[in-house]
Amino acid sequence: MRASDTDVVRPESPEQAVAAFGDGHGVTVFGGGTILMPTVSYGRYPRGGRTLMLDRAGLDELSGDGTVTIGAMTRLSRLAASDVQPVAAAAAQVADLEVRGQATIGGNLCAPPGDLQTALLAAGARVRSVGAGGERTEPIDDFLARGADDARLVLAVEFERPRRAGYISQRRAHAHSYAVMSVACAETGEGTRVAAGGLGLEPLRLTSVERALTEGASPAEAAAQAQDEVQPHDDALASAWYRRAVLPTLVTRALEQMQGG
Ligand SMILES: Cc1cc2nc3c(=O)[nH]c(=O)nc-3n(C[C@H](O)[C@H](O)[C@H](O)COP(=O)(O)OP(=O)(O)OC[C@H]3O[C@@H](n4cnc5c(N)ncnc54)[C@H](O)[C@@H]3O)c2cc1C
To answer: Using 50, 70 and 90 to split pLDDT, how confident is the model at 3?
Structure first.
């Protein structure tokens, strides 16, 4: 990237990062760069404006026994080595060691289709961010559904540690391919939450599966409800038909994993 293409700002604290982000207008946030660096190589990096490099800003807290707080700059390799489920399992299955050592949870949350989004949705995570209107903490469902013009700097995600959790992703053998689909489930204070990724740009809650579980269905019986709830798409990784056919098996396995089967 030529120095004249963008002004690079490198804050040394969370407070400086928040001040430099402002309302986010014209700012490109640079986390681990695993997605952004290739755009530099291919000449697609946003020109002009400001690049906010977060590598020295802190924002890498990983703490809490009851309520877990994960700073936006926490690397996936660190999460993979942690006991914070189902996020640890999701992080461990992303790409390879080199990518996980650089990639951050903030970048994964802001770059569809991030596999950790599925795990965070199942865990009922809240996202703390700043931007126009100041700081806010909102359910991940609302964060993911925000409009494209609502630029936010993610500071952290937090959630109550689930009693039990499961996570499974289906991917091709090559380490550099994204997951075809992922399923996460978590026993939270509000019951079992089940989420699936790879069925659209954002992960979605499988509420019919959750309802069936509440009514005493087995994992396989509950998982059978999933097909009616989704509208999969065709892409280079898999066809819609394939996704619909395989989803119940993934849901069953994730639930059995959570239940210790
Ligand atoms: C070879 C390869 C394989 C991969 N495989 C997978 C995979 O299997 N699963 C998967 O989920 N991902 C995969 N990825 C994508 C990527 O590595 C991850 O999604 C990663 O977590 C992105 O984080 P980052 O910090 O590197 O993002 P960056 O490249 O720094 O940024 C990505 C986007 O997020 C924004 N952003 C970053 N941090 C913040 C923040 N704190 N606040 C607001 N916006 C922010 C940036 O502006 C940018 O738009 C792969 C990437 C590569 C190169």
So the answer is: very low
Ligand 1: atom nearest CA of 155 is 41
For tokens 């703490």, name the residue. Answer: 63
Cα(4) to centroid(ligand 1), Å:
24
Q: How far is the CA of 29 from the centre of ligand 1 (A)?
A: 11
Torsion of CA 75, 78, 82, 88, to 10 degrees: 40
User: Across all residues in the chain, what is the average pLDDT?
Assistant: 94
Distance 219 CA to ligand 1 centre (A): 32
Contacts of 99 (CB under 8 A, 6+ apart): 34, 76
- By the 8 A CB rule, do 257 and 167 touch? yes
- 219 within ligand 1 shell (Cβ under 6 A): no
**What CATH number should be reported for the domain whose range is 1-58?**
3.30.43
The rounded distance, in Å, linking the Cα atoms of 261 and 259 is 6
Tell which atom from ligand 1 comes closest to the C-alpha of 117.
Answer: 11
- Which CATH number applies to 165-258? 3.30.390.50
Ranges of each domain in the chain: 1-58, 165-258
Beginning with the edge strand found earlier in the chain, give each strand of the sheet holding 152-160 in spatial order: 62-63, 67-71, 152-160, 126-131, 134-139
Give 112-154 pLDDT, tens digit per residue: 889 999 999 999 999 999 999 999 999 999 999 999 899 999 9
Q: How far is the CA of 36 from the centre of ligand 1 (A)?
A: 8
Confidence (pLDDT) at 180 = 94
